[in-house]
Design goal:
InterPro entries: Arg_succ_lyase_C, Argininosuccinate_lyase, Fumarase/histidase_N, Fumarate_lyase_CS, Fumarate_lyase_fam, Fumarate_lyase_N, L-Aspartase-like. Its EC number is 4.3.2.1. The chain is mainly alpha-helical. It has 3 domains: about 15-105, Orthogonal Bundle (Fumarase C, Chain B, domain 1), CATH 1.10.275; about 125-205 and about 215-355, Fumarase/aspartase (Central domain) (Fumarase C, Chain A, domain 2, Up-down Bundle), CATH 1.20.200; about 360-455, Ribonucleotide Reductase Protein R1, domain 1 (Orthogonal Bundle). It is built from 19 helices and 4 strands. It has helices at about 15-20, 25, 30-45, 50-70, 85-95, 110-145, 165-190, 210-215, 225-230, 230-260, 285-310, 325-345, 350-360, 365-375, 380-395, 405-410, 420-425, 425-430, 440-455, and strands at about 150-155, 155-165, 265, 350. The strands form 2 sheets. Strands 1-2 form a two-stranded antiparallel sheet. α7 packs antiparallel against α10 (about 230-260), α10 packs antiparallel against α11 and α11 (about 285-310) packs antiparallel against α12. The protein binds arginine (ARG). Arginine binds near residues 22, 82, 112, 318 and 320.
């Protein structure tokens, strides 16, 4: 059953077999392994290394194996070392000696490099789609909340008023960058390693360009040692996935804060919340917390692979087998988190009245009061001092700037006139801010148009 029994006289120790085997996890890419083999033998036949009849027999045998795995007729069992051995053994069992020609001009080193690339490439595209659905959900919230005022924070202290659309828009930008990071990785990784052999190419006249084109790569990789030893693209992917998780985690943290009894800015839908076994009143934001928590796990895979690769001499080393479980886990984790986060956002209720009244308190219009003075000839530093005194006065009286009478304003600075009220109203504070990227309605509408085009909706 082994691919390499020839030079051995003893059976492999059972524990060694188990320790060495990867079939429990690399069966995840049985489909890619078979597709890669089909492309390889198609090229071998074109080059006259196999006959067309041999190629056809092998291809149909491989296709049957694929169908049987998919329909559950053929179970992938762990007696084989890896998915490559499993497929080859079953091919030989089904089609006889012709099956033994499948591995001509190939090593498991370039084969596994190919399988992992094919798998990752598909997952990367799926990840982009999931991010797209999330972006559409965020766009939808933005479109309906251009006028929903809320406080913007720095240091988690109320700073200046913004809108919900503007706040959500910040995350739209982050996830849009995440998408483009995936695009970049795709472009860089999309070169085919197959045909590199164990490390030094092969003596057969392989047409690597042809195999690459059959598998929709942009071309073959250009150094056979690098081809079998490169895991950079996985490190880049894990970095991009870590960044997605970091963004989801920051957003989750805000959802948790907004959902707290103290804030009550939002209400998470019942379908996306959980209860407590002891406290009947509880409705907990577990999903947001779990997403925040799983971020550590994805960062862990990045650090893990970086550490595995550090110090590995060229070319292939078995250490690299460790790339699989952690990459699979990171991909599955991130996909799950994006889907759940999207559902949670899609069903969330926003308490607009509470958000707006929160924006009114906490002197979020203090900067605008200072700007008012500046527009009336006061130097900004002096204006800053005057408004500081206004704030102190209001804190003592437990009122907001808008509640002060004109006399009270004038007592602190005679520059104030009746138009101060309009100048520091929530509407002015937000909607006068119309530089590109600012929360003002005109500025937001322009950006939303760009986002609409981006999403092609
Ligand atoms: N399971 C191995 C891996 O994931 C496949 C390559 C095995 N190559 C070898 N020379 N032992 O890396």
């Amino acid at each position: 059953m082994k691919l390499w029994g020839g030079r051995f006289t003893k059976e492999t120790n059972k524990l060694v077999h188990n320790f060495n085997a990867s079939i429990s996890f690399d069966q995840k890419f049985y489909k890619q392994d078979i597709d890669g083999s089909i492309a390889h033998v198609t090229m071998l036949a074109k080059q006259g290394i196999l006959t067309n009849t041999e190629k056809d027999t092998i291809v149909s045998g491989l296709n049957n194996i694929k169908t049987d795995i998919e329909t559950g007729k053929l179970l992938i069992d762990s007696t084989h070392e890896d998915i490559h051995s499993f497929v080859e053994a079953h091919l030989i069992e089904r089609i006889g000696d012709t099956g033994k020609k499948l591995h001509t001009g190939r090593s498991r080193n370039d084969q596994v490099a190919l399988d992992m690339k094919l798998y990752t490439r598909e997952e990367l595209l799926e990840m982009k789609d999931l991010l797209n659905t999330l972006l559409k959900t965020l766009y939808n919230i933005m479109e309906h909340n251009i006028d929903t005022f809320m406080p913007g924070f720095t240091h988690l202290q109320k700073a200046q008023p913004i809108t919900l659309a503007h706040h959500i828009g910040a995350y739209f930008e982050m996830f849009k960058r995440d998408q483009s990071r995936l695009d970049d990785i795709y472009k860089r990784m999309n070169y085919s390693p197959i045909g590199s052999g164990a490390l030094a190419g092969t003596t057969y006249p392989l047409d690597r360009e042809y195999t690459a084109s059959l598998l929709h790569f942009d071309g073959p990789t250009l150094n056979s040692m690098d081809s079998v030893a490169d895991r950079d693209y996985l490190i880049e992917l894990l970095n991009a996935l870590s960044t997605i998780m970091m963004h989801l985690s920051r957003f989750s943290e805000e959802i948790i804060i907004w959902n707290s009894n103290e804030y009550q800015f939002i209400e998470i839908d019942d379908a996306y919340s959980t209860g407590s076994s002891i406290m009947p009143q509880k409705k907990n934001p577990d999903i947001a917390e779990l997403i925040r928590g799983k971020t550590g796990r994805v960062y862990g895979s990045l650090v893990s692979l970086l550490t595995t690769m550090k110090g590995l001499p060229l070319a292939y080393n078995k250490d690299m087998q460790e790339d699989k479980e952690l990459t699979f886990d990171a991909i599955d984790t991130v996909k799950g988190c994006i889907v759940l986060f999207t559902g949670m956002m899609d069903t969330m209720k926003f308490n607009k009245t509470i958000m707006e009244s929160s924006a009114k308190n906490g002197f979020t219009n203090a900067t605008d009061a200072a700007d008012y003075l500046v527009n009336h000839g006061v130097a900004f530093r002096d204006a800053h001092g005057i408004v500081g005194r206004l704030v102190l006065y209001c804190i003592e009286k437990d009122i907001s700037l808008d509640d002060m009478t004109l006399e009270e304003f004038k007592a602190i600075s005679p520059v104030f006139e009746d138009d101060i009220y309009e100048s520091i109203s929530l509407d002015t504070c937000v909607n006068k801010r119309n530089t590109i990227g600012a929360p003002g309605k005109d500025a937001m509408e322009k950006v939303l148009k760009i986002y609409k085009e981006y999403l092609n909706i």
